[in-house]
Amino acid sequence: MFKFKISDTIQVQAGKDKGRTGKILKVFPVSQKVLVEGVNQYKKHLKPKGNEPGSIVTLPRPLSTASVALLCPSCGKPTRVGFDASQTPKVRICHKCRQIITTEKK
Question: For the chain, what is the largest distance between any 2 Cα atoms, rounded to a whole number of angstroms?
């Protein structure tokens, strides 16, 4: 089970966007990265193609899971994620308030 899931609210702990919050759009468990809306945006310059002029596009890039912290829905604080295997199925818990972390489905 991965500590972060799609639509979790996180807070950035390091880097140029430190302190900003956002929802997770995509999770990359193999590379240990998450894509967060509105955070870690970069500009890409596109060359002109045919009749289309060149342009500058803003693209989001994934962040390392080491530089983000989950915002607990119960206490509202950035926290580490723990697991409670005594329950079936295994659930995620907040390390600060010991409440179960649930994810809202879209």
Answer: 62
Nearest CA-CA partner of 71 in 97, 44, 38 = 97
Residue with tokens 């002109």: 48
Percentage above 90 pLDDT, the chain: 69
In a domain, 47, yes or no: yes
Q: What pTM was computed for the model?
A: 0.82
Return the H-helix or E-strand segment holding 55: strand 55-60
Count of domains in the chain? Answer: 1
Surface-to-core class of residue 87, CB atoms within 10 Å of its CB (0-12 exposed, 13-18 middle, 19+ buried): exposed
Position 104 in a domain: no
d(CA 92, CA 98): 10
Residue with tokens 């962040």: 63
